[in-house]
């Protein structure tokens, strides 16, 4: 009803009477705004101040009579309402089915504080509500800001309080050096600007401003949060954000320019981003970058300075597994004070870190005392492993950019003595409070590096690998990081969701050079963890391209990213129609049926820029405990193999590492961008069976292992390609035969079909893809093959190439 009345007021067709000063009479005997006592004077005594709702006059009250007034019957339209110096006694304006419609402003030049218990419509593009002297203003009813701007001005020593609701689509501005207090549940959707003085938000029991409100605080001005509040954006242009003791401010975006400061002892929780574009931003040690299942707050490119400590959170999904983490801040307090939550058992916060049977050195007690947190010394000498258990958690601090391997068992409420199946699979958030890293960060082999890069070419344990952490509290574009001597420009991350149901993860590698990872995500169909972006708090392995030359990585502020999207191909190695790919993953059949994750996987990419020979485009497999899957070429286990475009009888040699006896497994084969003429098959060399693979959709191959070691050996499978468009019918229907098979005495015969004439190239390849013999001779119906070196026992592939046409068969060597 109030809004309707207000709208009717705005539609009045005004008379031709000019606006004029209207004075409140001190001897009318009534406080009613409309009365037959004629309480107003302009050109004579009048019943109301706006000529019966037709003229917006300049209304003035300059006396202390009728200190209780009533807006009765309707909205009174005014240009302005002035309390003159003579109106020094507090005055209350109540409401009876009425209100005020203001197009210019309300001004208090008196020493009295005047209270409006009546609704007010803001009906000019800019309406000023100013306290210009020692007296104040109080608004307890609704203020309809409409689509306009209401400016609260503390230009004197008086304060202004608003306990009513400000609603509408307009803006609120605060000027003047004194205090403006909001304590109502405001709903206006426009912006809030504090140019000077203090805006205090003080609604008890909930937010004062709408959660989507944007607040700008100018130089020297203050936004004071006295009750819990949620806001969308706060921009401090040299202003101050004060959060009172025990109060929590949740803000999505915080932007600082100039010299801006957080004060008070309350907490500021940031949910999206902090931008410091210039000047110095002081945190007062009370800023938290939140991390939840919905997202993680970040710090954008820093053009100024951040002074003070910041708490950075890292939300972790529930699964008892190792994680590779970095704290994003460098702390002065211990691991215990941070990731162990100082020993507290707050739900969803912190985790146990073990390494003692007695609880010594800050560790949580277990019956075994097994360590659960490790650093990685990439410069370990000799044959020393890189992983080193932390010596304590009550003294050792955390360092941004350093990588840590930590077994996360859920939060600190879990029982370390109970079975882990369900007990330790709750989500938790790790918090670290310290100094943010900003500016350029260099990883090299020097001691100044946050994680000194591997410089021990002879250490076969570390093997050129270095564990580094994203140094920034922000996602980083891996493609933009300057990298020198990093193998395939790749990084290895630890995915805790992979492996069997009782295992704790597998390595997933992302190669910038090939633009993919070694696994596909079952839901999206995109390469798993193939993010071009390193995440806040993420630690990864990199490998020296040349073991004798330490890699160098340079992170710059400009490398920071604003999104966390999956990127599965890039401009340098896009998977176009000329680039085909095959992703091979292995599952426990029950997990696959239930939509569970893979145990492990490997990828093969085919393109004109690649060769079948092992080179720097291929990405080495980093093997974890448990079953691992790789392709193999020249005795090198590969997570990502890059090969030339598919030719007839091309082979991918599958390496099944540490598969278990008496167990069922299922291969899942995903292919992309293969020509329709290409065919493929999975060859089981233990059972001597072949399973066709569909290059247009996922294929599944289930197999079992037994107590026979050959059934779970590493060389049981291979994938063979062919192309109907390239086959010669006569050649395809005439196969070679080898005898004797198995081969003994290191020699055998090949019987060739009659269609073979001219020069013949014969090669023998082992199951590692290594060529162990080759020869060239003229075709004959029967050819004797006698390798120069004795063949070891095992399975081999014999290939005959005649004028570019290839025939293959498998042979077994027995000694």
Average the pLDDT over all residues and give the rounded result.
91
Poorly predicted runs = 1-16, 565-578, 725-734
Shape summary: elongated
Main β-sheet, in a few words? 22 strands, mixed
Helix share bin? under 10%
Q: What is the number of domains?
A: 5
The number of helices is 5
What is the β-strand count? 70
Radius of gyration, Cα only, in angstroms? 38 Å
State the separation between the terminal residues, measured CA to CA: 101 Å
Describe the structure.
With 815 residues, this protein is mainly beta. It folds into 5 domains: 1-164, no CATH class; 316-359 and 387-437; 442-559, no CATH class; 580-723; 729-813, Immunoglobulin-like (Sandwich). Helices cover 3% and strands 43% of the residues. The chain has 5 helices and 70 strands. It is elongated, with a radius of gyration of 38 Å.
Key terms for this structure?
815 residues; mainly beta; 22-stranded mixed sheet; 12-stranded parallel sheet; 5 helices; 3% helix; disordered N terminus
